[in-house]
Amino acid sequence: MSGRQATTTLWRPTGPVELDLVRELNWRAWPPRLPEQPIFYPVLNEDYAVRIARDWNVKHDGAGFVTRFEVESEFLSRYPVQQAGGRTILELWVPAEELDDFNAHIVGEIQVVQEFRRGDESL
């Protein structure tokens, strides 16, 4: 029997400022939320993360990034899946005051898997 816990893959669309903070945290944690951000919301599928990074982050921040990371599945069970629109628009809503605990259950590093910038031909 393996001692490795089951994990769930999550994605997070992010802009350049938040990505710099993740880099400063050695790709192992998400930075504290700002006062106007009471919820941290990772998403459950890459397509949804791409849409936000490409269509929202690029427009507002000049660049958007899709990150992927693993979190212990048992820990995530405390957060019900939220359907924020269509069938595939699924998120977890982590209260800002629980983010340190959430970060403690990330397994491995947060990885950038896609990048979009203003002026990209793909946009």
TrEMBL record:
Q: What's this protein's name?
A: ADP-ribosylation/crystallin J1
Task: Please name the source species.
Answer: Streptomyces poriferorum
Provide the taxonomic classification.
Bacteria, Bacillati, Actinomycetota, Actinomycetes, Kitasatosporales
